[in-house]
Amino acid sequence: MSSKIIYENQVKALGDLAGTFAKEGMIIFFGDNAPDTLADYCYSININPVKGTIKSGQTFMVGEVAFKITAVGEVAEKNLINLGHITVAFNGLTEPTLAGTICVEKKEIPKIKIGSEIFILA
Length: 122
Hints:
Elements: E1 5-10, E2 13-14, H1 19-22, E3 26-30, H2 36-39, E4 43-44, E5 59-62, E6 65-72, H3 76-83, E7 86-89, E8 101-104, E9 117-121
Parallel strand pairs: 3-4, 7-8
Antiparallel strand pairs: 1-9, 2-4, 3-7, 5-6, 5-9, 6-8
């Protein structure tokens, strides 16, 4: 990849209901401390550093599938750094509906499994 990687991670576990929100056009990633009420709906990842600022116009990748970031909620980056938590909405909105959400272009969400890699590229 010739773009600068500002975030990278790998899915290490799947909540039993993780695909539920995908049907609604969003996916939820969370570090090891996901609240019990949310854990079943999350893709579990490690808490990894963010090497830059996440902003619109960058690229979010799931495996080999790229999505343009269209909006970044005001606490999305902080939550990712501190909790490994981020909600990705595949809706193309230019204003996030929730403060912890990153919106990306509206395209089909690829199948996510254990070992799937995620990246944010500047």
